[in-house]
Amino acid sequence: MKTISKLPNVGTTIFTVMSALAKQHNAINLSQGFPNYQSDQRLSDLVSKAMNSGYNQYAPMAGSLDLRLAVSNKYELLYQSTYHPEDEITITAGATQAIYTIISAFVRQDDEVIIFKPAYDCYQPAIEVNGGKAISVQLSAPSYKVNWQEVASKISSKTKMIIINSPHNPSGTIWSEDDMLQLQKITNNTNIIVLSDEVYEHIIFDKEEHQSVSLFKALKQRSFITASFGKTFHNTGWKIGYCCAPKALMQEFRKVHQFNVFSVHHPSQKGIADYMKDANTYLGLNLFFQKKRDLFLSLIKDSRFKFLPSKGTYFQVLDYSEITDQYDVDFAKRLTKDYKIASIPLSVFNDDNKDDKVLRFCFAKTDETILKATEILNKI
Ligand code: PMP
Ligand code: GLN
Fold first, then answer.
1. What residues does ligand 1 touch, defined as CB less than 6 Å away?
2. Stretch 187-203: mean pLDDT, rounded?
3. 15 CB less than 6 Å from ligand 2?
4. Spelled out in words, what is the top-level CATH class assigned to the domain 41-278?
């Protein structure tokens, strides 16, 4: 039998490749983004309590109402922005499913979707499998600043959506208020939908403030926000996230959502809802990760890697151009095999594998692991 791939250029994700290589070579794994410590025992106890109290059948299609209320309260508290739990918030199987579902609910054959490169790797395949075309705006190390004139020049009558992501994976940069205002301006009087991937909203450093689309009135009207409890509560394996949008957009989202997952793990939703009653469970995250970033950077300050400190996410990009001019994928693999430390090469997220000689390191690790990793980096 012959099959014709809908995604002929897609292979296995770099996250799977590098984590497998790290395992094979017994290397410290700072590649795929996940913590190597346990999440709060109290959260696990609340999920167990939900299981033992009988929350073991299908959750409502849009998600547990308690959790949607908790999400709604968070937007009121942090951004003074209202999303109604009934019809403007849906709980998803991680941010990945929210992103896929948003794209498949709106993108048709030949529609264009603007994405900023380096781009998180689930955006483009989701666009293409739905018949759309990804239009890239390539950003460059080390600042990854957006040229808004270039973005404006790429908007056409076919532009259906713009996908943004701040704090940004993989660069660790953030967008300013001015960036958001520029986006608001160029989408004004259009039918463009904005998909704002805000999975790292609670991981932002140096007293910077997260510029959520929910803060910008006109932008909010055309936007979906996607988020991930896995990032916020240190349990990426639970795969619970959510999305918010104005009612008319959410209505279309749910038409697809009800048939691609219907609903997600019920006891986790109840447990997370109880846990979020205390806002400190997510408000403390900035400081927690800033300490880890600072520890990591202070320990490699005399190494041959150059860097601008990460402004958000739990990733730090390091420039290795003083060490070698080897292609970043090959260098990342060599570091894993020979030095026993795994990272993520950024070229795989760029147009034409543009190679800025930078690697991404995840610092969501115990201090002990950070110490061991930096000892290795200092020897390279
Ligand atoms: N977007 C970005 C930018 C991410 O880094 C990730 C995962 N780390 C996701 C989306 C997907 O989140 P989830 O694991 O909740 O599906
Ligand atoms: N988001 C994680 C990262 O950036 C990886 C998630 C995945 O493996 N799909 O490393």
1. 33, 94-96, 120, 165, 169, 197, 199, 228, 230, 236, 239, 241
2. 98
3. yes
4. alpha beta
Sign of CA dihedral 323, 329, 330, 335: positive
Distance from Cα 53 to the centre of ligand 2, integer Å: 33
Taking CA atoms only, the protein residue closest to ligand 2 atom 3 is: 33
- H/E segment holding residue 223: strand 223-228
Give the atom of ligand 1 at the shortest distance from the alpha carbon of 228: 15
Residue found by looking up tokens 């970033």 in the block: 293
Q: Of how many residues is the chain composed?
A: 380
Q: For residue 202, what pLDDT band results from cuts at 50, 70 and 90?
A: very high
CATH topology of domain 14-32+284-379: Aspartate Aminotransferase, domain 1 (3.90.1150)
| Cα(277)–Cα(279) distance, integer angstroms | 6
Could you tell me the distance, in angstroms and rounded to a whole number, from the CA of residue 226 to the centre of ligand 1? Answer: 9
Answer whether 14-32+284-379 and 41-278 agree in fold. no
- The 10s digit of each residue's pLDDT in 292-312 is 999 999 999 999 999 999 999
CA of 230 to the centre of ligand 1 (A): 8
User: What residue spans define the domains of the chain?
Assistant: 14-32+284-379, 41-278
Q: Which atom of ligand 2 is nearest to the CA of 344?
A: 10
pLDDT tens-digit series, residues 158-177: 999 999 999 999 999 999 99
Instruction: Give me the DSSP letters along 278-295.
Output: STHHHHTHHHHHHHHHHH
- Give the residue, out of 169, 233, 344, 362, with the most ligand 1 atoms within 8 A of its beta carbon, to mutate for a pocket test: 169
Closest-approaching ligand to the CA atom of 126: 1
Q: What spacing in Å lies between the alpha carbon of 32 and ligand 2's midpoint?
A: 5
Residue closest to 168 by CA, chosen among 307, 360, 299, 342: 360
pLDDT by residue (tens digit) across 17-28?
A: 999 999 999 999
Cα separation, 30 vs 370, in Å, equals 9
Residue 90 contacts residue 71 (beta carbons within 8 Å):
no
Q: pTM here?
A: 0.97
